[in-house]
Design goal:
The active site is at residue 1033. InterPro entries: E3A/B/C-like (IPR044611), HECT_dom (IPR000569), Hect_E3_ubiquitin_ligase (IPR035983), IQ_motif_EF-hand-BS (IPR000048). This protein is mainly α and 1065 residues long. It has five domains: 48-251, no CATH class; 255-409 and 446-484; 500-646, no CATH class; 679-803 and 890-921, Hect, E3 ligase catalytic domains (Hect, E3 ligase catalytic domain fold); 923-1000 and 1021-1058, Hect, E3 ligase catalytic fold, CATH 3.30.2410. It has 46 helices and twelve strands. The strands form five sheets. It has a four-stranded mixed sheet, with helices on one face.
């Protein structure tokens, strides 16, 4: 063998290596060739590109020098083949400006549109223009209108798009008669180009421009740009023949831009004329009439943008309201469509109040936003756009005009029909019907039906939906409706004439069949109640009782009667779901009840209704108590929600039952507990307040509500004889109350009518708030035990005690006369001032003078520098009234209420009105019933009911004394001039008369022995020089055995007139 094994292997390896090297050489050569080809290609392209750019720059060096369109087209097309957006931006701008100029040329040779007329380039030219328009949209989406450079480019691009979306810009075609036959084809060309724009999201691009140009701190869009944007959008709509999909996009993307209409008025008013010319409003409302489209719009927008869409719709409606077309054709569509969209927002927005994902909106309040929505919620407040819906001419067209038309068949002076009788007594019903027939036989022949009645209900449904959706503007909406001419009064007449019973039967029937309260009539009632509650709240006494325009007092009487029966029937027949606070029926109930209570409290303060007006005749005391005892839910709701429908006496009896039931539950009722032990306290007479405060503060609430026995220590430090059986405790209460309510102590002040209220300067007393709590507790104990005390409170203070001031519609101005009549008159004069209020130099502040030191308090933050004007004067008078009656005594009142309600359950207090609470504290204002007093009188010391002196006494009181003197007599013997609310049977201790010749140790009551002994001993002494005296803590009259009736009369008259007591006995 020539080679060995090693040599063979080596040879093979060398051969393989040589082969691999040759292969690598070939690859290197191929790569070099490829790189060279790429470089040569790039160099060629670069040279070609540079040549194209050079040719373009040369062609467009002077854009005002027009060249043949075909040549320009070829050059422009070459540019677009090698186009770079960043590098060629300025070239593109030049191209656009040149094309715009060429289109304005009347020469077909130079007009860029002429290229489309050549067979060679027609198809490619259309694609070429589409490419240019696409580039325009691309640039527009990135430009910033606030930049001067971008602003110029923006105008050019918009002008370019406008020029190709209408043949009206093509001057060469329009000026050449021979080319007019081409117009239909060219119109289709513009439609083609518009379709291309729509496919490239032209509305998205325009929306971005509007947002960046309008929603900043400053408006950066110029009028020409605004007009161009809206023109482009408008042509897209027109050339698409308002197709549903395109129109929906326009509404979502463009018409929802916040304050769009407001900006159009200032920047492009001609666009609005265009909107009105084809009735854009009606087209939008027809879209919203479709619930599916409403849902689509809502889910495409942020809720706040939905509201801005509504604002633009309302703004356009306001501008169109004067047109005949709107009044005849658009109002119904507008009402239904807007109601539908507002309902969609309300039903979809999830209300939140304490969630990190919640969004606050100045009109909608707190809500959870749609996470899929890409629009920012940070938009300006829309209140100015929304206001016309409930104010001004638009409101007239939507509601007032239809009310007038619906009521046209009813004579203007026709009185509102009365509700049916408040009793099922057939005799009363027949009498009522007969009286009504005599008063006006034609009164009930009217029935409000027809198209206008339907439109009234629909409009009210719209405003009701506004209240439920735009929650933060509820007050503005209601105020607008209240003061929009006589709309509220017309709505009242419309409701009242729904049937022959003031609308009651009609509405009850609807409520029975629609417990969800979705019907328009029930929503109309709720809207009226909400508006009327607000109206009465801000109505002063001059407007309500003297001017009586437009409402007269009879209207308030019928209104309250209607509501009283409506709520009573609704509760009795279980038509309201009162327990479910989220239900619509509960909302209706609350609105009706609020208006009823506003009227009732106004009547309590200054009567306008006849006696017994508020009572429901069907409710008898005995049966009412029986039903309550059985636990009937309906009766519990009635007494809780509308307690005034039963008599005051019934409610006082119920109050006493509540107290008695609580005492038994606590085990402190002395007659129901064998192991009962009263609490005994020792009080020094010269330190009654201090000792009383100490004991009451340390005593448990259970013991305080139980029986308390008082042992007095006189000024010499000696125990006074005996521990009382209620009498001494009553004296302790009376003496404590007398001292703490003495104005000289400066805990309380008196009004001009000598009524008490907390002193604003009480803080000079040490621990004054603790003292107020103590006083509240002591007074609460007196009421708890049924002890009447002569403590007349100012009405406004009692309202706070009842918790009425915490209610939304409480009016401080109403209560102001009970504090300061002069201030009330002054504020009323400000409210009715016919000139410019700012001339009075008033500010939102008040100056207090305390011990010669002047202090300024702001009614609102910075109020001392805010001038009172005609626009804010209503707010000023209410804030001023609130300050003097609430703010400056807030701490004192809160401490007093805390003490009072620690004894008296607040739910029990809800049974009573303000004057009724005063009666509960101080007794009845009714004339003294002497027969009732005589029936319950107890006699001691030999006296008895047939005794000569006793007979004289009753005759003197009945025949010789005036009502005022009888009150003085009652005050003389009981310390209170008013009788107990439930009669003298409830006077504790019972009223008694004792012959003063018999000593206390010998007095055992009217036994046979005492009567005989009295017969023989009663004349031992001459009583003619002795005056009658009294022990008010025991309700005891100490009467000498006078020999003549005239002496008794004179002595008694002198004693009660001199305010005698122990000291003259």
């Amino acid at each position: 063998m020539m080679f060995g094994e090693d040599s063979k292997t080596q040879f093979i390896e060398q051969t393989r290596a040589a082969r691999i090297e040759r292969a690598n050489d070939r690859k290197r050569e191929q790569s070099a060739i490829l790189v060279q080809s790429f470089v040569r290609g790039w160099l060629v392209r670069k040279r070609t590109q540079n040549l194209i750019l050079y040719q373009f720059d040369e062609t467009f060096e002077n854009i005002s020098d027009l060249k043949p369109a075909v040549k320009v087209y070829v050059t422009a097309k070459k540019l677009l083949n090698c186009y770079n957006e960043q590098r060629d931006r300025h070239r593109f701008e030049k191209l656009c400006r040149y094309i715009i100029l060429s289109l304005e040329s009347e020469s077909i040779k130079y007009s860029y549109i002429s290229v489309a007329l050549t067979k060679e380039h027609a198809v490619n030219w259309i694609n070429h223009v589409k490419e240019i328009l696409s580039l325009c949209l691309g640039y527009l989406s990135t430009l910033q209108p606030k930049s001067l450079e971008d602003s110029c480019f923006l105008h050019t691009l918009l002008h370019m798009i406008v020029s190709f979306t209408s043949t009206s810009r093509w001057c060469a075609i329009n000026s050449n008669n021979s080319l007019q036959g081409l117009k239909p084809g060219l119109e289709r060309l513009t439609e083609n180009l518009v379709a291309h724009l729509l496919n490239n999201d032209v509305f998205n691009t325009m929306q971005k421009l509007l947002i960046t140009g309008l929603l900043g701190i400053k408006v950066f869009l110029k009028p020409v740009a605004m007009t161009a944007i809206m023109t482009i959008c408008w042509r897209c709509l027109v050339l698409s023949n308002f197709s549903t999909n395109v129109f929906l996009l326009f509404v979502i993307k463009i018409y929802s831009i916040p304050l769009l209409m407001e900006h159009l008025i200032s920047l492009s008013p001609k666009i609005i004329e265009t909107f009105q010319s084809i009735n854009l409003l009606e087209k939008i409302m027809l879209l919203l009439n479709d619930q599916n489209q409403c849902d689509e719009i809502y889910h495409s927008l942020h809720p706040s943008w939905c509201l801005s869409l509504i604002g633009n719709i309302i703004h356009l409606a306001e501008l169109s309201a004067e047109t005949k077309q709107f009044e005849e054709n658009s109002t119904s569509v507008f009402i239904v469509g807007l109601t539908s969209f507002l309902d969609t927002i309300r039903n979809n927005v999830v209300k939140k109040h304490s969630n990190v994902s919640s969004v606050w909106h100045p009109e909608l309040g707190w809500f959870t936003a749609n996470s899929k929505c890409q629009c920012s919620p940070n938009i300006p407040p829309l209140k100015s756009q929304l206001i016309p819906l409930w104010c001004g001419n638009l409101c007239s067209k939507l509601l007032r005009c239809h009310l007038i038309n619906a009521l046209a068949q009813i004579p203007e002076n026709q009185q509102v029909p009365s509700p049916p009788p408040k009793t099922n007594n057939p005799i009363a019903i027949i009498k009522k019907a007969f009286d009504l027939r005599l008063s006006n036989t034609n009164q009930f022949t009217y029935k409000l039906t027809g198209i206008h009645g339907t439109k009234v209900v629909a409009a009210c449904n719209l405003y009701f939906t506004c209240l439920k959706t735009i929650t933060q503007l509820k007050l503005d909406i209601i105020t607008g409706l209240c003061y929009h001419e006589d709309t509220l009064y017309l709505l009242w007449r419309f409701l009242a004439f729904l049937d022959s019973h003031c609308g009651l039967k009609n509405l009850l029937d609807i409520l029975e069949s629609d417990k969800n309260c979705n019907s328009g009539e029930l929503r109309m009632l709720q809207l009226f109640c909400d508006s009327m509650s607000h109206y009465i709240t801000i109505l002063d006494d001059i407007e309500m009782y003297e001017l009586q325009k437009p409402f007269v007092l009879r209207d308030y009487i019928l209104m309250s009667s209607f509501l009283n029966i409506f709520l009573y029937k609704g509760i009795s027949q279980n038509l309201f779901d009162i327990q479910d606070t989220t239900s619509s029926s509960n909302s209706l109930f609350r609105s009706c009840r609020t208006l009823l209570m506003v009227l009732y409290r106004r009547d309590c303060r200054r009567s306008f209704a006849p006696t017994g007006h508020w009572l429901i005749g069907d409710l008898k005391t005995s049966s009412f108590f029986n039903e309550l005892k059985k636990g009937r839910k309906i009766y519990s709701i009635l007494i809780q929600e509308i307690p005034h429908i039963v008599s005051h006496e019934t409610r006082v009896r119920l109050f006493r039952k509540y107290v008695s039931r609580e005492k038994i539950a606590l085990g402190v009722h002395e007659y129901d507990n064998e192991n009962f032990q009263p609490t005994v306290i020792t009080i020094r007479r010269n330190r009654i307040i201090e000792d009383g405060y100490t004991y009451v503060s340390e005593m448990s609430l259970k013991n305080f509500k139980g029986v308390i026995r008082v042992k007095f220590i006189n000024e010499q430090g000696l125990d006074e004889a005996g521990i009382d059986q209620d009498g001494v405790f009553k004296e302790f209460l009376e003496e404590t109350i007398k001292r703490v309510f003495d104005p000289s102590l400066n805990l309380f002040r008196t009004t001009e009518e000598q009524r008490l209220y907390p002193s604003p300067s009480s803080h000079i007393q040490e621990n004054h708030l603790n003292l107020f709590e103590f006083v509240g507790r002591i007074l609460g104990k007196a009421v708890y035990e049924g002890i009447v005390v002569e403590v007349p409170f100012a009405s406004f203070f009692l309202s706070q005690l009842l918790g009425q001031t915490q209610e939304l519609l409480y009016s401080s101005m109403d209560e102001l006369p009970s504090l300061d009549n002069d201030l009330y008159r002054n504020l009323t004069s400000v409210k009715h001032y016919e000139g410019d209020v700012s001339e009075l130099d008033l500010t939102f502040s008040v100056v207090d003078n305390h011990l010669g030191q002047l202090t300024t308090h702001d009614l609102i933050p910075g109020g001392r520098v805010i001038t009172v004007t005609n626009q804010n004067k209503i707010n000023y008078v209410h804030l001023m009234a609130h300050y003097v009656m609430h703010t400056q005594i807030k701490a004192q009142t809160a401490a007093f209420i805390k003490g009072f309600k620690s004894v008296i359950n607040p739910e029990w207090l809800s049974l009573f009105s303000t004057p009724e609470l005063q009666k509960l504290i101080s007794g009845d204002n009714a004339p003294i019933d002497l027969l009732d007093l005589r029936r319950t009188t107890q006699y001691y010391g030999g006296f008895h009911d047939s005794h000569r002196v006793i007979l004289w006494l009753w005759e003197v009181l009945q025949k010789d004394f005036t009502e005022k003197e009888r009150s003085l007599f009652l005050k003389f013997v009981t310390s209170c001039s008013k009788p107990p609310l439930l009669g003298f049977a409830y006077l504790e201790p019972p009223f008694s008369i004792r012959c003063v010749q018999v000593s206390d140790d010998e007095d055992f009551g009217d036994t046979l022995v005492s009567v005989i002994r009295g017969f023989f001993t009663i004349r031992k002494k001459d009583p003619n020089l002795r005056l009658p005296s009294a022990s008010t803590c025991f309700n005891l009259l100490k009467l000498p055995n006078y020999q003549k009736k005239s002496i008794l009369r004179d002595k008694l008259r002198y004693a009660i007139s001199s305010n005698t007591g122990f000291e003259l006995s």
